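hey so i finally got around to running the thing on that chain from the lab meeting. sorry it took forever, my laptop kept dying and i had to restart like 3 times. anyway pasting the input first so we r on the same page abt which one it is
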Amino acid sequence: MKKDLCELIVVIDESGSMQRVTNDTIGGFNTFLDTHQNLPGTANLTLIKFDTTYNIVYNGVNVKDVKPLDNTTYTPGGMTALLDAVGRAIDEVGKRIDSLPKKQKPGKVILMIITDGEENSSKEYKLQQIKEKMKSKQDMDKWEIVFLGADQDAWQAANAMGSKGAVNYSVVNTKGTWSKMAYFSANSRSYSDKTSLDNFNLSDADVDKELQKIKTDNKNDK
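ok and heres what got predicted. didnt touch it at all, straight out
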Protein backbone atom coordinates (compact mmCIF):
# COMPACT_ATOMS: atom_id res chain seq x y z
CA MET A 1 0.00 0.00 0.00
CA LYS A 2 1.02 3.60 -0.57
CA LYS A 3 1.01 5.29 2.82
CA ASP A 4 1.13 8.75 1.24
CA LEU A 5 -1.96 8.06 -0.90
CA CYS A 6 -5.40 8.74 0.60
CA GLU A 7 -8.84 8.12 -0.85
CA LEU A 8 -11.35 10.71 0.33
CA ILE A 9 -15.02 9.88 -0.19
CA VAL A 10 -17.57 12.60 0.53
CA VAL A 11 -21.30 12.00 0.31
CA ILE A 12 -23.30 15.25 0.55
CA ASP A 13 -27.01 15.75 1.09
CA GLU A 14 -28.43 18.00 -1.64
CA SER A 15 -32.11 17.46 -0.81
CA GLY A 16 -34.61 20.28 -0.46
CA SER A 17 -34.15 20.69 3.28
CA MET A 18 -30.54 21.74 2.67
CA GLN A 19 -31.66 24.92 0.90
CA ARG A 20 -31.47 26.81 4.19
CA VAL A 21 -27.74 26.09 4.44
CA THR A 22 -26.78 26.23 0.75
CA ASN A 23 -24.09 28.85 1.16
CA ASP A 24 -22.74 27.31 4.36
CA THR A 25 -22.45 23.93 2.65
CA ILE A 26 -20.69 25.45 -0.35
CA GLY A 27 -18.28 27.42 1.82
CA GLY A 28 -17.73 24.47 4.14
CA PHE A 29 -16.95 22.02 1.37
CA ASN A 30 -14.56 24.52 -0.18
CA THR A 31 -12.70 24.82 3.14
CA PHE A 32 -12.47 21.03 3.25
CA LEU A 33 -11.20 20.98 -0.33
CA ASP A 34 -8.65 23.73 0.20
CA THR A 35 -7.28 21.95 3.28
CA HIS A 36 -6.62 18.75 1.37
CA GLN A 37 -5.30 20.49 -1.71
CA ASN A 38 -2.55 21.96 0.46
CA LEU A 39 -1.53 18.83 2.36
CA PRO A 40 1.58 16.85 1.40
CA GLY A 41 1.16 13.51 -0.29
CA THR A 42 -1.54 12.53 -2.77
CA ALA A 43 -5.28 12.29 -2.25
CA ASN A 44 -8.01 11.21 -4.63
CA LEU A 45 -11.52 12.53 -4.08
CA THR A 46 -14.82 10.85 -4.79
CA LEU A 47 -17.75 13.24 -4.39
CA ILE A 48 -21.36 12.09 -4.52
CA LYS A 49 -24.32 14.41 -4.03
CA PHE A 50 -27.81 13.11 -3.46
CA ASP A 51 -31.39 14.34 -3.55
CA THR A 52 -34.19 12.19 -5.02
CA THR A 53 -31.41 10.33 -6.87
CA TYR A 54 -27.62 10.55 -6.63
CA ASN A 55 -24.95 12.20 -8.75
CA ILE A 56 -21.34 11.04 -8.93
CA VAL A 57 -19.51 14.34 -9.42
CA TYR A 58 -15.96 12.98 -9.09
CA ASN A 59 -14.74 9.41 -8.90
CA GLY A 60 -11.16 9.06 -7.71
CA VAL A 61 -9.96 12.39 -9.07
CA ASN A 62 -6.76 13.93 -7.74
CA VAL A 63 -7.95 16.39 -5.12
CA LYS A 64 -5.82 19.14 -6.66
CA ASP A 65 -7.92 18.90 -9.83
CA VAL A 66 -11.27 19.21 -8.04
CA LYS A 67 -13.12 22.50 -8.45
CA PRO A 68 -14.80 24.32 -5.56
CA LEU A 69 -18.57 24.16 -5.32
CA ASP A 70 -20.70 27.20 -6.15
CA ASN A 71 -24.37 28.05 -6.55
CA THR A 72 -24.48 26.38 -9.95
CA THR A 73 -22.94 23.09 -8.82
CA TYR A 74 -24.75 22.77 -5.48
CA THR A 75 -28.50 23.32 -5.86
CA PRO A 76 -30.60 21.63 -3.14
CA GLY A 77 -34.01 20.21 -4.03
CA GLY A 78 -35.99 16.98 -3.97
CA MET A 79 -35.98 14.08 -1.56
CA THR A 80 -33.31 11.98 0.21
CA ALA A 81 -31.76 8.96 -1.54
CA LEU A 82 -29.23 8.47 1.24
CA LEU A 83 -28.84 4.69 0.98
CA ASP A 84 -28.36 4.75 -2.79
CA ALA A 85 -25.70 7.44 -2.52
CA VAL A 86 -23.77 5.64 0.21
CA GLY A 87 -24.11 2.26 -1.46
CA ARG A 88 -22.91 3.57 -4.79
CA ALA A 89 -19.98 5.36 -3.12
CA ILE A 90 -18.83 2.17 -1.41
CA ASP A 91 -19.27 0.02 -4.51
CA GLU A 92 -17.63 2.42 -6.97
CA VAL A 93 -14.59 3.15 -4.82
CA GLY A 94 -14.30 -0.41 -3.55
CA LYS A 95 -14.30 -1.81 -7.08
CA ARG A 96 -11.67 0.69 -8.23
CA ILE A 97 -9.37 0.03 -5.26
CA ASP A 98 -9.79 -3.74 -5.54
CA SER A 99 -8.60 -3.56 -9.16
CA LEU A 100 -5.28 -1.96 -8.16
CA PRO A 101 -2.08 -3.89 -7.46
CA LYS A 102 -1.41 -4.11 -3.73
CA LYS A 103 1.48 -1.65 -3.94
CA GLN A 104 -0.79 0.94 -5.60
CA LYS A 105 -3.66 0.76 -3.13
CA PRO A 106 -4.24 3.80 -0.89
CA GLY A 107 -2.93 3.53 2.64
CA LYS A 108 -5.93 5.41 3.97
CA VAL A 109 -9.60 5.50 2.93
CA ILE A 110 -11.92 7.99 4.63
CA LEU A 111 -15.67 8.03 3.95
CA MET A 112 -17.66 10.97 5.31
CA ILE A 113 -21.44 11.27 4.98
CA ILE A 114 -23.23 14.50 5.86
CA THR A 115 -27.02 14.85 5.91
CA ASP A 116 -29.81 16.68 7.67
CA GLY A 117 -32.58 14.21 6.89
CA GLU A 118 -33.72 10.63 6.85
CA GLU A 119 -33.79 8.23 3.91
CA ASN A 120 -36.97 8.44 1.82
CA SER A 121 -36.09 7.92 -1.85
CA SER A 122 -33.61 5.09 -2.49
CA LYS A 123 -34.38 2.38 -5.03
CA GLU A 124 -31.12 0.45 -5.49
CA TYR A 125 -30.02 -0.37 -1.94
CA LYS A 126 -31.67 -1.51 1.28
CA LEU A 127 -30.55 -0.63 4.80
CA GLN A 128 -29.26 -4.13 5.57
CA GLN A 129 -27.11 -4.10 2.43
CA ILE A 130 -25.51 -0.82 3.49
CA LYS A 131 -24.87 -2.14 6.99
CA GLU A 132 -23.13 -5.22 5.61
CA LYS A 133 -21.04 -3.17 3.18
CA MET A 134 -19.94 -0.73 5.88
CA LYS A 135 -19.03 -3.52 8.27
CA SER A 136 -16.95 -5.22 5.61
CA LYS A 137 -15.10 -2.08 4.62
CA GLN A 138 -14.37 -1.09 8.22
CA ASP A 139 -13.43 -4.54 9.51
CA MET A 140 -11.70 -6.04 6.48
CA ASP A 141 -10.32 -3.05 4.56
CA LYS A 142 -9.90 -0.66 7.53
CA TRP A 143 -11.87 2.19 6.02
CA GLU A 144 -12.63 5.09 8.36
CA ILE A 145 -16.31 5.99 8.12
CA VAL A 146 -18.02 8.91 9.83
CA PHE A 147 -21.73 9.66 9.60
CA LEU A 148 -22.61 13.29 10.38
CA GLY A 149 -26.28 13.93 11.10
CA ALA A 150 -27.82 17.37 11.63
CA ASP A 151 -30.48 17.79 14.32
CA GLN A 152 -31.01 14.04 14.68
CA ASP A 153 -29.69 11.09 16.65
CA ALA A 154 -26.65 10.52 14.46
CA TRP A 155 -25.46 7.61 16.59
CA GLN A 156 -28.74 5.77 16.09
CA ALA A 157 -28.75 6.46 12.35
CA ALA A 158 -25.07 5.52 12.03
CA ASN A 159 -25.57 2.31 13.98
CA ALA A 160 -28.48 1.34 11.72
CA MET A 161 -26.26 1.84 8.68
CA GLY A 162 -23.23 0.16 10.22
CA SER A 163 -20.99 3.20 10.62
CA LYS A 164 -18.69 3.02 13.64
CA GLY A 165 -18.23 6.79 13.66
CA ALA A 166 -21.02 9.29 14.21
CA VAL A 167 -21.28 13.00 14.88
CA ASN A 168 -24.34 14.99 15.89
CA TYR A 169 -24.31 18.60 14.74
CA SER A 170 -26.67 21.54 14.57
CA VAL A 171 -27.69 22.56 11.08
CA VAL A 172 -27.05 26.19 12.03
CA ASN A 173 -23.38 25.25 12.42
CA THR A 174 -23.08 23.50 9.08
CA LYS A 175 -20.08 25.53 7.95
CA GLY A 176 -18.26 24.98 11.24
CA THR A 177 -18.94 21.26 11.02
CA TRP A 178 -17.31 21.16 7.58
CA SER A 179 -14.22 22.81 9.07
CA LYS A 180 -14.13 20.09 11.70
CA MET A 181 -14.47 17.50 8.94
CA ALA A 182 -11.47 19.11 7.27
CA TYR A 183 -9.48 19.01 10.50
CA PHE A 184 -10.40 15.44 11.39
CA SER A 185 -9.69 14.09 7.91
CA ALA A 186 -6.43 16.05 7.63
CA ASN A 187 -5.28 14.52 10.92
CA SER A 188 -6.32 11.05 9.79
CA ARG A 189 -4.71 11.43 6.38
CA SER A 190 -1.47 12.51 8.09
CA TYR A 191 -1.62 9.60 10.59
CA SER A 192 -1.60 12.19 13.38
CA ASP A 193 -2.09 11.11 16.97
CA LYS A 194 -4.60 13.99 17.15
CA THR A 195 -7.05 11.98 15.04
CA SER A 196 -10.20 11.50 17.09
CA LEU A 197 -13.93 12.13 16.90
CA ASP A 198 -13.19 14.58 19.72
CA ASN A 199 -11.96 16.85 16.90
CA PHE A 200 -15.64 17.60 16.31
CA ASN A 201 -16.04 18.85 19.90
CA LEU A 202 -13.54 21.67 19.47
CA SER A 203 -14.81 25.23 19.17
CA ASP A 204 -15.02 26.77 15.71
CA ALA A 205 -12.31 29.24 16.69
CA ASP A 206 -9.93 26.49 17.81
CA VAL A 207 -10.52 24.47 14.65
CA ASP A 208 -9.89 27.52 12.47
CA LYS A 209 -6.59 28.07 14.30
CA GLU A 210 -5.59 24.44 13.78
CA LEU A 211 -6.44 24.55 10.07
CA GLN A 212 -4.45 27.74 9.66
CA LYS A 213 -1.52 26.13 11.47
CA ILE A 214 -1.68 23.11 9.13
CA LYS A 215 -1.66 25.39 6.11
CA THR A 216 1.24 27.50 7.46
CA ASP A 217 3.31 24.45 8.39
CA ASN A 218 2.86 22.93 4.94
CA LYS A 219 3.85 26.17 3.23
CA ASN A 220 7.01 26.34 5.33
CA ASP A 221 7.88 22.75 4.40
CA LYS A 222 7.71 23.45 0.67
